[in-house]
Amino acid sequence: MLTLPLALLLYLYYAVVAIAVIFQLIMIYHLLLSAATTFTSLTVTFFVLAATVLTVYGTWYLLREVNWETTLTVFESAWFRSSPSYSF
Amino acid sequence: MNLAHFIKQKPYEHIVYVLRRHPITFIPTLVLFVILLAIPPLFYIAVQSLWPTLLQGDVTYPVLILIASGYYLFVYIFFFTNFIDYYLDIWIVTNDRIIDIEQFGLFSRTISELDLFRIQDVTTDVHGVLPTFFEYGDVTVKTASSNVGLIFRQVARPDTIRHELLRLSHEDRKYHYAQPTIEDHE
User: Fold this and answer.
1) How far apart are the first and last CA of chain B?
2) Which of B37, B73, B100 is the mutation pick for testing A, counting most A CBs within 10 A?
3) H/E element holding A71?
4) How many Å apart are CA A64 and CA B88, to the nearest integer?
5) Contact assignment for A32 to B66 by CB distance below 8 Å
6) Engineering a disulfide at B142: which of A36, B33, B83, B149 sits with its beta carbon 3.0 to 4.6 angstroms away?
7) B1-14 as b/e, with b when 16 or more CB fall inside 10 Å?
8) Strands B97-104 and B90-94, how do they pair?
9) A43 CB near a chain B CB, below 8 Å?
10) What pLDDT tens digit does each residue of chain B (186 aa) get?
11) Secondary element (H or E) of residue B182
């Protein structure tokens, strides 16, 4: 039986959040460097940042009571051992 | 950083136009963004009606929430990247030159310049139903020295821009040809 701790998925999620933040910082840097700090670009930036914060907060809120010690079964040989039964 | 600093504006130079693609050209991205945002709620409704117990499992519930959250973060990146690609394609027209800045994705950009007095030919191309109704199209600027010129892509009021470019070019040519040459000094 192959199991993974559920917390591993949480760490993967942290990595995704980190990637999203890095990309957003790069894009803000682009806007600043290109002298494109207009009302439109500020509005879009605010919208994306706010959506990111709300998404991360919403995720934390929905998962705040999850037990991360639970294990996730990825593979179990018993899945293939049981022979199918047919009834006619 | 302001635009004047970005283009290293000369003392006698002033910015006449800052052009970007017509906002309507960004609408397909917006529509796609809204569709991508709508997928998880639709999936949730489908799961609730087909497998109502799936969202109550100790493992499946957090896994699905994490997947949906990660998906949303990638959708925001997709939207922001497309916005940057759209918004950082800029054509700056001054009384002396045209600066063409084109952004390709996040990590690729080309910047080219063309002196106004070298302009030989300006062509507009309004092609299709939407461009005709919303008055946007391409403006191609060519010089005498090369066949390859700058293209202002999908900009609003291309005919007005063509007229203005020809007028500015004419004025700049008068200024340049009025300058004393080396032979005049000798």
Assistant:
1) 44
2) B73
3) strand A71-75
4) 40
5) no
6) B149
7) eebeebbebeeeee
8) antiparallel
9) no
10) 677 777 888 888 888 989 999 999 999 999 999 999 999 999 999 988 888 887 788 888 899 999 999 999 999 999 999 999 999 999 999 988 999 998 888 788 888 888 888 888 899 999 999 999 999 999 999 887 766 688 999 999 999 999 999 999 988 888 877 766 555 555
11) helix B182-185
SS3 A12: helix
Q: B94 by DSSP, 3-state: which?
A: strand
Starting at the earlier edge strand, list the strands of the sheet with B97-104.
B15-19, B90-94, B97-104, B108-115
Q: pTM for the complete prediction?
A: 0.84
- Which residues of B make CB contacts under 8 Å with A? 1-3, 5-6, 58-59, 61-63, 65-66, 69-70, 72-74, 76-77, 79-81, 83-84, 87-88, 90, 101, 103, 106
Written as six digits, the tokens of A70 are 């639970």
ipTM computed for the complex: 0.84
Contact B73 A26 (CB under 8 A): no
